[in-house]
Every structure is written in structure tokens, then in C-alpha cells.
């Protein structure tokens, strides 16, 4: 335990170019799951690995999929290909909801290329029939995934990231509701919060950074701060702002040219924003645009679910949890738990308890967390973790329904 330290995390808004790509990729995942439900296609057979690129007046969607027959058409040679129509509609729907109707990137006129093709049969055979459990799904790739939870905030997320997200969420909500002058902000924004910790507990905010696009070219940094400061103060209600807190609002001055007009965007470039703001490790794989046979996504959700329930069960104050997988193999190769010396039981005991309370094969995770459904577009901005579970099954990995089972398992 350190007497004092400072930690900083950033977030980006849904209109940031990379987040526009994440949103389009996840709208496509949702659309494919909806089509599966509509056509009676087995949702567990769906495969999506969808990457998006955006730039001025252009969206490019590429990747590999296995989709219901309604999303397939014949080319001029009679060969099956992906029908681009509904994929383009999904992309436009995402861009419209984010709020881009500007010169250079307008949901009504943006040009969209769909370059999706069918999943490799070589990958498919390993995923469909796991090497270690015949008839069960194997992992969609090799890799390592991390989950994390701590007692910084009610959502058991690190405070700097939690508040960075909250600032942008409030501003986006007000912008879309056209509340006064906030309605003149653009969709593109970034936030950053520095928190002072005393004895490992968050005590105050010492630095605030916000860069936000504004559509009124006459605004300067001073004017932007005047507009956004009440929302920032509201977002930080749960943590005091230090008297000598340093504010950096649009520190370069003007920020009119934003979004894909200002910078190209790509799916999967904001993985630290998506997870724990740098407070915990990340395995390297992005989430958005992937179905949940991809353990980059589903196992990261499971790891967070387990870590959060360990903290909620009061078995530790902090928990980092790692899972590892091999492509085509159902069961994880390893489980590692580190409670940073805060655990009520040995970390090895917690590792054994995890094996008892949850099947961590891809199919086991998908069933336990009910992941085979269209719930992913809303994960694309403001973090995949620390959100409230929805009635539609979204953010099921944030439930606290494993507390009793974990308590019983560590005592057995």
C-alpha cells in the first residue's frame, strides 16, 4: 500500500473516429444475430470478424463471416457472396445515431464499401468441433484475456476511467437532447482524469482534460469550458475536485474539424478505453465486430464477471484474472488470479474455486452469460465494463449472481 499516488485514464466519445468504427462493427454483429433469430438460424452457428475503416466521406467494412441465408446473394456467375445491402444500412444507422450529418461525413451520403467474405473452412472446422471435447465449440483463436475489479467505485471499476467515461456520456446525452449551447458541440471528444490516491483509495481529482469538437467556429477554449464545466462537475459528483485542480479544456484552442474528416478511424484501436484505463493488463485482442466464439471478447467478459464477483463477495479488494486459450480447444489452458495481497484466501484457492463455479469453454461462457443475441452496439462506447446489466441481456457479465457460489467454493 502506497501512502499517496496519482493515476490517470482517458476515454473517447462515440464520435471519435475509432469509436465510430467500433460502433459500425458492433451494429453489424447485432444485425447478423437479429437476422439469425428472424430466420430461425441457430445463433451459435453465427461467425463474425468485422473490421471497419472510416475517413472523409468513406466507410470500408471488411472481414470474415458466417451468416443466415437472407444475407447471401448470387453473383453474376451464380456463386454465393455476401449481400451488402443490410450491412450498409447498419453502418448508416450507427453514423446517424452518433450524430454525423456534417460536410465530409454525413450518414445520408457517405460512401460504403462492403468487402466481407465467408469464414475460412480451416478455422471453421476447429471452432465447430473442439479438439479436447468433440461436439463442442473450440476457441476461435489463441490468446490471453484479462479481467479486473476493484473497490474504487460502486461499479467496481477504477476511478479515473469511470469518471472519464461519465464526463463524455453526460455531454453526449445533453448534445443529442440539444440542451442549450451543448447542442453546438460535435460528436468527437476525448476526456482524461487524474485521481489522487491516499492509502490506495481515490480521494480527489487533480487534473481534468477535455477536448471536444464544437460546430460554432467563433468559440475558443474559454467559451467551451463555460459550456461544458457544469456537466463535468455533475459527472464528478462522486469524487471531490481538488481546489488546485488543473483544467485543460480544448488546450489547442479551436476544434471544429473532427471525426473521420479530421482523422481516419479503425476498429479495435481503443482497447484500453474499452477495458480498465491502464489500471490492469490487456491481452491485446479487441472486442468490437466479433461474435462470441472469439475468446478475445467472450473470455474477457467472463474474466471481468469472475473478478467482479470475487470483489463483490468480499474475497479481495482488488483482483486481476487471466485466462488463456488455444484455437480449436474448448477449455482454457490456464487460469491465473492475483489479488495484489488483498485476498481473504490464497490466490491459488480462488483459482480452484473458479474451475468449480463456471464452465469457461466458449460455449459454456456463451450459455452462462447468454451472449448469443444482439446486445453489442451499446458496448462500443464508454467501456464494455462497469455498466448496468440491461433487461435485454446486455452487460450480463456485470451481474453479481456468482457471489454465493464463489463463497461456497473457497470454503469447500
Question: How many helices in DSSP terms?
Answer: 10
- What level of helicity do the residues show? 25-40%
The biggest beta sheet reads: 4 strands, mixed
Total number of beta strands: 15
Calculate the terminal CA-CA distance, rounded to whole Å. 30 Å
Poorly predicted segments: none
List the helices and strands in order. EHEEEEHEEEHEHEEHEEHHEEHHH
Q: Overall 3D geometry?
A: flat
Summarize model confidence as the mean pLDDT. 95
Percent of residues in beta strands = 25-35%
Radius of gyration, in Å, reads 22 Å
Quick structural overview:
The protein is built from 10 helices and 15 strands. It is an alpha+beta fold.
Features:
412 residues, 15 strands, single chain, alpha+beta, 4-stranded mixed beta sheet, 25% strand
How does this structure look, described?
The chain has about 400 residues and is of the alpha+beta class. It has helices at about 15-40, 85-100, 120-130, 160-175, 220-235, 270-275, 295-310, 345-355, 360-370, 405-410, and strands at about 5-10, 45-55, 60-65, 70-75, 80, 100, 105, 110-120, 145-150, 185-200, 200-215, 240-250, 265, 320-325, 335-340. The strands form five sheets. Strands 1-10-11-12 form a four-stranded mixed sheet. A hairpin with an 8-residue loop joins β14 and β15. The longest helix has 23 residues, at about 15-40.
